[in-house]
Amino acid sequence: MFQDFDDRSDASQTASRVERLRAALREAGVDGFVIPRADEHQGEYIPPSSDRLRWITGFTGSAGVALVLPASAAVFVDGRYTVQVRAQIDASVFAPESSVETPLAAYLKDKAKGLRIGIDPWLHTLADVKSLEKAMEEAGGALVLLPHNPVDRIWQDRPLPPKGRVTLQPVAYSGLESAEKLETIREGLRKAGADATVLTDPSSVAWVFNIRGGDVSHTPLPLSFALIPADGRPTLFIDADKLDGEASAYLSGLADLEAPDQLEGALARFADEKAVMLDPALAADRLSRIVTKAGGRVIEKEDPARLPRARKNAVEIEGSRRAHLRDGAAIASFLSWLDRQPAGSITEIDAAQKLEAIRTRFGEADGMPLRDLSFDTISASGPNAALPHYRVNRDSNRTLGDGEIFLIDSGAQYQDGTTDITRTVAIGVVPDEARQKFTLVLKGMIAISTARFPKGTRGMDLDPLARIALWKAGCDYAHGTGHGIGSFLAVHEGPQSISKRGAAVLEPGMIVSNEPGYYREGAFGIRIENLLLTLEASEIEGGDLPMHGFETLTFAPIDRRLVVRSLLSEAEIDWLNAYHAEVAARIAPRLDEEDRRWLELATRPLPV
């Protein structure tokens, strides 16, 4: 199994750990300390050795930050985790705060007046530090960049850094040789007037050098850095223990290989009177200070690999299509199996394990083994489904009860593509209110699927389309509508997103998720998710401008039993019927006879 069901949340030692941390802070000469959920790469995917936030607070979510002050402490999370954080932290030590309503910087202005607040500059981006410095200046205090992380000083049983084996991603799956990608980066540097860049995002390093790794769960990342000059040979900073003979020989042909702890010295030597490009939203502030101290200049621009990585090439697109057909068949087989189980006989863990086993079987049959899940499966019944990022464990495990909603959000890592799909299904006959909310969510999902939009449209411009039916009913959801997807890489990939903050323009080749939802705390949750490929703009008959659109990549039934037909327009019913006809045509040949019979019923048309 690629997923375990252990409860990694433990706040039983929080009070003593915070007291020990405060003692360490006094020794360091600061009054407080900021603990982000981050490592030196500033990514969402971190190894256990970097999960300081979980260790100190017990909170296991994928985003958050803690602040420890002399007499108080707080944990800041967004709307995805407001329920979860209250359940996991020791409320006598940490107070939960909304990172949206009261961002850390605003909190510091009010609560840290005259104080000295420490940070680890390897764990905060350039943009973060600027914001925190401004806040502390306005609070009459100071932001102190500490040479050592005080949490690490007291974390006696801290796990060792990961040493996942590096593998190669052949051009048959990557579509481009690494040499071509490196030239793309160099062209971007020359255009920006930069002498070099430091790639700090392991996804970008993996993409540029056509490698994958095993340093974090569910995402094939090799934790590493790359210093790429506009002219000359790049240097890859990666642990040699991760490289076998093949990987070492391959990478040595592309770059000089150095240990990660050599990055600071190498960058300082290079930066003298040089301009170095750093992404202010991704690069650690420590790197910026190394450059300026060495007499160099920082050019703050987006990671030059990020946009070309997001624009999938033809090989990557075809790989994604294959992966989704394989994965859609596995999902259909799972839903067929689920429908045959008596109500009350299956638990959330049973469902997650069964789906992984079916994915494994379909991958082997297709000659493309399941390499991993793309994230811990969200297998959530009843009130657990109201937690958007719920992770089932043995203590929280519930039986799928008769008359309840069951939500399963899951994904797979295949070498030819990364998948992410959510289906919400009825277990028995569910209340009318749940069916109504499901249909409103479906209307939003259809609105995004069928959207046409001109060149230059951003994700934030489309986001209201997914919400308008819910808004008219006085409802909303506290997460984005869609995120970017990597190619056998991170299931969450930027810069593109469909969200209230999605400022990146949607360009051809970008893959995004489409996943509106609705959550009633303590009762039920609903989400429907397909992945979409952004298409080249094309003419519309009688129109004035060519318009982009989306191609649906995900093919699996949407539960017709939860649809309130009267709430759908004729066009929306047409879309659902056409989608289900395509699901049946594409998926049925991959199923056995029993599952094909189920699929035929699950995809039959709704009456118009």
Automatic annotation (TrEMBL):
One of its GO terms (cellular component) is cytoplasm. CDD domains: APP. It comes from the Bacteria. Residues 17-139 form the Creatinase N-terminal domain. InterPro entries: Creatin/AminoP/Spt16_N, Creatinase/aminopeptidase-like, Creatinase_N, Pept_M24, Pept_M24B, Peptidase_M24_C, X-Pro_aminopeptidase_P. Residues 320-533 form the Peptidase M24 domain. GO terms for molecular function: metal ion binding; metalloaminopeptidase activity. Pfam families: Creatinase_N, Creatinase_N_2, Peptidase_M24, Peptidase_M24_C. Residues 547-606 form the Peptidase M24 C-terminal domain. Keywords: Aminopeptidase, Hydrolase, Metal-binding, Protease. Belongs to the peptidase M24B family. This is X-Pro aminopeptidase.
